[in-house]
Amino acid sequence: MCTFRCLLLAVALSLVASPSSSSFAQYAAGPAKIFPLERAFPLDEQVELNELRARDRVRHARILLSGGGGRRRSSIGGVVDFPVQGSSDPFLVGLYFTKVKLGSPPTEFNVQIDTGSDILWVTCGSCSNCPRSSGLGIELHFFDAPGSLTAGSVTCSDPICSSAFQTTAAQCSENNQCGYSFRYGDGSGTSGYYMTDTFYFDAILGESVVANSSAPIAFGCSTFQSGDLTKSQKAVDGIFGFGKGKLSVISQLSSRGITPPVFSHCLKGDGSGGGVFVLGEILVPGMVYSPLVPSQPHYNLNMVSIGVNGQMLSIDGVAFETSNTRGTIVDTGTTLTYLVKEAYDPFLSAITSSVSQLATPIISNGEQCYLVSTSINDMFPPVSLNFAGGASMMLRPQDYLFHYGFYDGASMWCIGFAKAPEEQNILGDLVLKDKVFVYDLARQRIGWANYDCSMSVNVSVTSGKDLVNSGQPCLSISTRDMLLRFFSSIFLALLVCIFFSLT
């Protein structure tokens, strides 16, 4: 008969043999990783349009500087519903950020979600000229490298540093430490050094089952910041890069089988905002896909035409060319949507002509606006952005217009598309909202479908490995498999226990 000590041994062996919450050998048997997002501007704080465009210009300068070498460029078994803050309203919107935990003991950091950069970096405790408070109503934290029991340095000979040299501005210090220095077009910048430490996240195993998971990752520890990064008004603890580089968190985790090579988001578009960011594939019907443009540092799609009210616009083909400096980028960090001059002018002309008998055009603070007396859905035409592979992004009037108040008793709506200051079209939150977007890195494509982002979502964790998807939530299957493995391991452990008891 097995003793109490032996029973404890059996349980311990079963826990070791079963797939634990902190070690998933294959992401097909593991959960999706969910990151709740929060808005950067308080919901009750109005933001002027010129401030948003100025912020977008800073954002675009950072994107454009990242294109060349040596420069910088998140059982679901059914239903998942994560309350998230954020809004596409140009007067209430802000960048999205989420919370991550690093180190031992873990410290929580608020980091901006950024699909346009590759590195997760947080502010080091030794950082000079760094904000000590934030106007966003959050408490800033600083990474204490000497105080973390699991922190490790990255030397110049480390393969991590070699990857950094390929995708970012890596450099070697006098003490053989792998460092970085990111300089942005707006004059701001950060420098520091790369580290490795434990990264914690919640693994969702079922509707009411949340497991604490962790994995070692490489990230940046910022010791110096300059320019806008030093301002307290919008300060966060760092940037969470979800780009295509080898050192992005999604690349690090998926290459080790911890997560699938796919992530998704759904941004709620009404005034109250909300959304979800998932390391995994959100499953919704009606998804359409367009291939990513190869050999580009960002998430570039090949846009081929723009339609207004079902009619394709006559646009110079140069507007849709893709090169090191041209193309169409999907970027959640940009609020508005930007078109190059060759596409913007025909688009604006087509919209104005379409509503000339129904709305009164007016220029307000330099913006093209319209005075309307009824619902914009009854007056303004649908718009389609058309991409390679036959995928179209259908836009409602509220996806390219924003409400700008009232004038002479009439409601004033303004064009939410702007003329791109550079040669790249950038699809921002205005058109990304109210849609599920899936970044399928295994198949090198981006998919989207209209969706009410206030509703629950189903998430698959098998997509991207075997390139087979049943179209049903797969985590319920993996949860069943985990339970089978768990009880099988208990049975095997008990057999071992009985054997030792008899001997």
Automatic annotation (TrEMBL):
A GO term for molecular function: aspartic-type endopeptidase activity
Signal peptide positions are: 1-22
Instruction: Please provide an example of a Pfam family that matches this protein in its UniProt record.
Output: TAXi_C
Q: Return the InterPro entries for the record.
A: Aspartic_peptidase_A1, Pepsin-like_plant, PEPTIDASE_A1, Peptidase_aspartic_dom_sf, TAXi_C, TAXi_N
Q: Which residues form the Peptidase A1 domain?
A: 96-449
Transmembrane parts of this sequence: 482-502
Which keywords annotate this record?
A: Aspartyl protease, Glycoprotein, Hydrolase, Membrane, Protease, Signal, Transmembrane, Transmembrane helix
Question: Among the record's GO biological process terms, what is one?
Answer: proteolysis
Which positions are catalytic residues? 114, 331
The similarity comment for this entry is:
Belongs to the peptidase A1 family.
Name used for this protein in its record: Peptidase A1 domain-containing protein
